[in-house]
Amino acid sequence: MAETQHPACRLVTIQDDKGAEFIGNRIAAWRKKYGIQPQHTVRATPQQNGRAERGFRDLAESPTCILARAGMSISWWAEAAHASNYIYNHFPHCALGCTPFELWYGHKPNLANLRVWGCLAYVHLQKDQREEPKPRAHTRLCTFIAYHDDYKGWEFLDHETGSRVVSRDDCE
Predict the structure, then answer these.
(1) Which of 21, 22, 36, 69 is the most exposed place for a label (fewest CB within 10 A)?
(2) What are the phi and psi torsion angles at 57 (to 5°)?
(3) Do residues 91 and 164 lie in contact, with contact meaning Cβ atoms separated by under 8 Å?
(4) d(Cα 172, Cα 159) in Å, to the nearest integer?
């Protein structure tokens, strides 16, 4: 993805801690195919990964806080982690002097779409989604659960049906 979004950049080295997900024939073949050099840290020395380890720790702890604040179960951890990472990338970091988003895309992020994870929302139902008989409700109570990369909208959990809904409607 990095190379397709920034053709002038090329991945040349991957540093890892020799975790199980980084070793094996498949990943070695992939690295060899693309000429990517492995660089491993010394056993039991996470400090050699410095900032990355701290970032992983923050990313692992933030969803727990978000879930507790929203009163939602641990089963929503992946969605909370994605939202946490989204927020992390949209706020300035002193080490960078800007946001990670700005560093990657070359312009400041639009913060107008940021919402409190787990907030209640009344999602607008389009005509074909409304139930008979009249009068039909035009909204349904939902909970905000995700920012979306593929849509100009947010993802919600529908309280009535338990299904996921992508909508452009705002959180209340």
Answers:
(1) 21
(2) -65, -45
(3) no
(4) 15
* Residues 53 and 101 grouped into a single domain: yes
pLDDT at 64 over 80: yes
Percent of the chain with pLDDT over 70: 94
* Look-up of token digits 């507790």: 68
Whether pLDDT at 54 is above 80: no
Segments forming the whole domain that contains residue 104? 47-114
Same domain, 51 and 110: yes
Task: Name the CA dihedral angle for 106, 109, 110, 114, rounded to a multiple of 10 degrees.
Answer: 160
Contact 154/148 with Cβ under 8 angstroms? Answer: yes
- Counting Cα atoms < 13 Å in the Cβ hemisphere of 2 gives 6
Distance of alpha carbon 48 from alpha carbon 53, whole angstroms = 9
Tell me how far apart the alpha carbons of residues 144 and 80 are, in angstroms, rounded to a whole number.
10
Q: What backbone torsions phi and psi does residue 41 show, to the nearest 5 degrees?
A: -80, 160
- Token pair of 4 as six digits: 């397709």
Buried b (16+ CB within 10 A) or exposed e, 99-128: bbbbeeeeeebeeeeeeebbeebbbebeee
| Inside any domain, residue 172 | no
